Amino acid sequence: MNKKAFITLKLFATLGKFTPDSADNYPVEPGTSVRELIAGLKIPEEKAKLIFIDGVKGELDSTLNGGERIGIFPPVGGG
């Protein structure tokens, strides 16, 4: 039996439409990568440009164990 862990998930700007109802207590399998999380949320990988895990820059291959705060930002432009 697999044990679930929970994360807090924040999706910013245009990614907000992918936010699940359970974003404040989102279940993940311990050891899930950010890449797997994004795929499970149906977010195109190229749209997840900047990832923060507990306020520190993360990567798509970063693993989650539960208790983390995850922030994902899309590409942004300005001028």
**Separate helix tally:** 1
For the biggest β-sheet, the strand order reads 2-1-7-4-5
Total domain count? 1
C-alpha-based Rg, rounded:
12 Å
Q: Could you name the ranges where pLDDT drops below 50 across 5 or more consecutive residues?
A: none
Mean pLDDT: 95
Briefly, what CATH class? Alpha Beta
Strand element count: 7
Order of helices and strands: EEEHEEEE
In percent, how much strand structure appears in the residues?
A: 25-35%
Through-space gap between termini: 51 Å
CATH architecture: Roll
Give the % helix: under 10%
The quaternary organization reads as: single chain
Structural class: mainly beta
Global geometry:
globular
Q: Mind describing the biggest β-sheet?
A: 5 strands, mixed
CATH superfamily: Beta-grasp domain
Describe the structure.
With 79 residues, this protein is mainly beta. The protein has a single domain, classed as Ubiquitin-like (UB roll), CATH 3.10.20.30. The chain has one helix and seven strands; from the N terminus they run βββαββββ. A five-stranded mixed β-sheet has the order 2-1-7-4-5, with no helix packed on it. A two-stranded antiparallel sheet has the order 3-6. The longest helix is centred in the middle third of the chain and has 7 residues, at 34-40. The chain is globular and about 45 Å long. It starts with a strand and ends in a 6-residue tail after the last strand. The model has no long low-confidence stretch (mean pLDDT 95).
